[in-house]
UniProtKB/TrEMBL annotation:
Annotated InterPro entries: AAA+_ATPase, ABC_transporter-like_ATP-bd, ABC_transporter-like_CS, ABC_transporter_ATP-binding, P-loop_NTPase
Residue ranges of every copy of the ABC transporter domain listed in the record: 5-234
Gene3D superfamilies, alphabetized: P-loop containing nucleotide triphosphate hydrolases (3.40.50.300)
Entry's family note: Belongs to the ABC transporter superfamily.
UniProt-listed SUPFAM superfamilies: P-loop containing nucleoside triphosphate hydrolases
Protein name: ABC transporter ATP-binding protein
Organism: Pseudorhizobium endolithicum
Keyword Plastid listed: no
Single annotated GO MF: ATP binding
Keyword field contains Membrane: no
Amino acid sequence: MAPIVSIRNLAKTYGNGFQALKGVNLDIGKGEILALLGPNGAGKTTLISIVCGLVNPSDGQVLVGGHDVVRDFRRTRAMIGLVPQELTTDQFETVWNTVTFSRGLHGKKADPARIEAILRDLSLWEKRENMLRELSGGMKRRVLIAKALAHEPEILFLDEPTAGVDVNLRREMWQVVERLRKDGVTIILTTHYIEEAEEIADRVGVINGGELLLVEDKTALMRKLGRKELRLELAEPLGALPPGLDSYNVALAEDGGALIYEYQGEAEQGRIATLLGSLAAQGIEFRDLSTRQSSLEDIFVELVGQRA
């Protein structure tokens, strides 16, 4: 099946000479959730803006549903919903009129039932007659999401959608995302809350300095790059690392009270029994053990640090 979004050799250099994107290649499948991670200034928003037709690329091509985003702007833009970072709303308009207008702006016929369902999903129904200037920042964020969903897009971009919002909205937002996924909507999100990407994304992309460092299935990425740590709390502290452990990636804790074994992959994991046997043979006893697996945040920090 052809990807719903296809990006080839995408580059963007602004008038001041800043190169925001450098030859980005990316395919996004219909119905998947892709989390795009990167520090501030990495190129995330520029990438989204080009796909949404808000910024023209300096080089390369973007196809949405097989259509070029520059030549077929209206057609591709109608397929896309965008929740921007900025709270850009008409302060003197009501919630109902704002969301309804957004639907009509994309050429969709009036559908009050659809608008009502969206507002109820986002806990905005009771605020439908309120002017936007009367709403809190979190409520205004909900209105942006409602506007993006009003024309029933096939692709939804969420650019830092939960930054600075309350826990309840964040929870509701991901419930909406899950329902949209079931309906076949493709979702691309940028976020600073890496635990969110770890929880809901199918694939994870890491971008830094305008370059896409990798895009991988989340589970495969954590299996391939995620490290595990076995910590053995010793019955008696040691003054030095025991002999015979040179072939293992074992370190002695600073206080001498624990041995720490870092391993990666099933092959190294299989050596744990051998390591424990070696310690037993030397009469080294431990009173407790625990394991820890690196998180997506650990992997992200490591990848970005390598390219800093």
